[in-house]
What we know:
Elements: H1 3-33, H2 51-63, H3 80-89, E1 95-99, H4 101-109, E2 118-122, H5 128-138, E3 146-150, H6 153-157, H7 165-181, E4 185-189, H8 206-223, E5 226-228, H9 230-234, H10 254-275
Parallel strand pairs: 1-2, 1-3, 3-4, 4-5
Helix pairs in contact: 1-2, 5-7, 7-8
Amino acid sequence: MTGRAVHIARRTGRVALYLLALVGVAHFATIWLRPAVRGMNPAACEQTGSGSLHLAGLWIRYLSGDTPVFDNWTGACAFAGQNAEALQSGQTVDIVFIGDSITQHWLAADPALFGKTRLNRGIPGHSAAQVLTRFPSDVVELRPRIVHLLAGTNDVLGVHGPATPAIWQGTMRAIVDLAKSNGITVILGTMPPMLKNPFDPHHLPAAVIAEQNRWLRALAQEKGLILADYHAVLASADGGFKSGLSDDGTHPTAAGYAAMRPLLDKALAEANALSKK
């Protein structure tokens, strides 16, 4: 073996050792960065982190092949502190808005709508299944008179994997039944329009949303729910948003939420009258 070949072999060996050491460090870092409490434990929600260091730790775990997305897939701990404060205050909760980013963004677009008696429990990216899993903690335990349910966009997009109309419909029906069994009046929102799927250019969601919104209207009639048909005021003829009502084709702008507000106000008036009977 020539001197050059020996040099290359030694350098390759050192690189391999460095990579092996890096993998080992990443493996132990991944174990160390996992939540201290895993599984069913009364203190589980107290171990959820936030901030830039927490985010950096999540990236290290992702790159190491770990699955931190399952740490809090249900989102059940996201509002644990706020829910505890609401219960401890003794303040009566009139309504809880629960759903995905479309619900969450409403808080920034119209902050005066929310407060101590009107709580926002929207989490970006959530599917109907995730809303169902946290419904007991984020809605039922707060004992509101009314719940505003708006979910389905992420199911249509397939954000969490394959979704069928039957599975989504069954999940939405389960959420409604859970609310009604606890004496909570339901305002059911139709899904906002969406012309294109940002994750799949070959999937055109407008027709799917129109079909599922027809099903939501039928469910509202069957179950005696109050319907807020947001799609009707937001959608253009092609199934997308009307001009100026969305910047990304998925979420309403402030103008979009302003267009939705009269429907919400009407639904709230109906729900208030119904829940006080």
